[in-house]
Amino acid sequence: MKKLILPALFALAASPAAAASGPFFSLKNTDFIVTLGFITFLAVLVYFKVPGMLAGLLDKRAEGIQSDLDEARKLREEAQSLLASYERKQREVREQADRIIAHARQEAELAAEQAKADIQHSIARRLQAAESQLASAEASAIREVRDRAAAVAIAAARKVVAGEMTADRAGQLIDSAIAEVGAKLH
């Protein structure tokens, strides 16, 4: 507190109201009083080590700014390394996706070729089955036509034989059939 009283007294003594015009080194000359007040003010600042404190504050501020710059530089380097890492990972993922797509295309082509082969085998089997069904139907139709022809021939022969057969001729045929059976049995 005592340190503050002395500068206050000097400030009051060096006020413009106390100054007047006249010789320079007189307490009545304003310029001298202002110069003396300014020198006293500077002396008080030096006495209280204000320039050292200001230099210390400026140094602390400069150190803080430098540490902020260093931290920002480190953060920038970390960000660049992270960016490079992510870009590398993105390239790897893109390459892996390209490999997966290529592999899927190959599998799709193989599956398509396999499906074509399966369809061709299926068509061949169906054609063979159809041909066998046609052959079977043809054989069945031929057999049916033969049976029908035989039935028609038997019916026609029956009519012809019945129309030409007389009682004497029927008796002769029966006698010859009995003789033939008897000969074959004995």
UniProtKB/TrEMBL annotation:
Stretches that traverse the bilayer: 29-48
Main location: membrane
UniProt keyword Transmembrane present: yes
Keywords for the protein's UniProt record, in alphabetical order: ATP synthesis, Cell membrane, CF(0), Coiled coil, Hydrogen ion transport, Ion transport, Membrane, Signal, Transmembrane, Transmembrane helix, Transport
Gene Ontology cellular component annotations, sorted alphabetically: endomembrane system; plasma membrane; proton-transporting ATP synthase complex
GO molecular function, one term: proton-transporting ATPase activity, rotational mechanism
Coiled coil start-end: 62-125
Signal peptide: 1-19
Pfam families listed in its UniProt record: ATP-synt_B
Subcellular location: Cell membrane; Endomembrane system
Membrane topology, record value: Single-pass membrane protein
CDD domains to which the protein is assigned, alphabetical: ATP-synt_Fo_b
Domain of life: Bacteria
Summary of the function given for this chain in its UniProt record: Component of the F(0) channel, it forms part of the peripheral stalk, linking F(1) to F(0). The b'-subunit is a diverged and duplicated form of b found in plants and photosynthetic bacteria. F(1)F(0) ATP synthase produces ATP from ADP in the presence of a proton or sodium gradient. F-type ATPases consist of two structural domains, F(1) containing the extramembraneous catalytic core and F(0) containing the membrane proton channel, linked together by a central stalk and a peripheral stalk. During catalysis, ATP synthesis in the catalytic domain of F(1) is coupled via a rotary mechanism of the central stalk subunits to proton translocation.
Protein family (similarity comment): Belongs to the ATPase B chain family.
Subunit note: F-type ATPases have 2 components, F(1) - the catalytic core - and F(0) - the membrane proton channel. F(1) has five subunits: alpha(3), beta(3), gamma(1), delta(1), epsilon(1). F(0) has three main subunits: a(1), b(2) and c(10-14). The alpha and beta chains form an alternating ring which encloses part of the gamma chain. F(1) is attached to F(0) by a central stalk formed by the gamma and epsilon chains, while a peripheral stalk is formed by the delta and b chains.
Protein name, per record: ATP synthase subunit b
Source organism of this protein record: Maliponia aquimaris
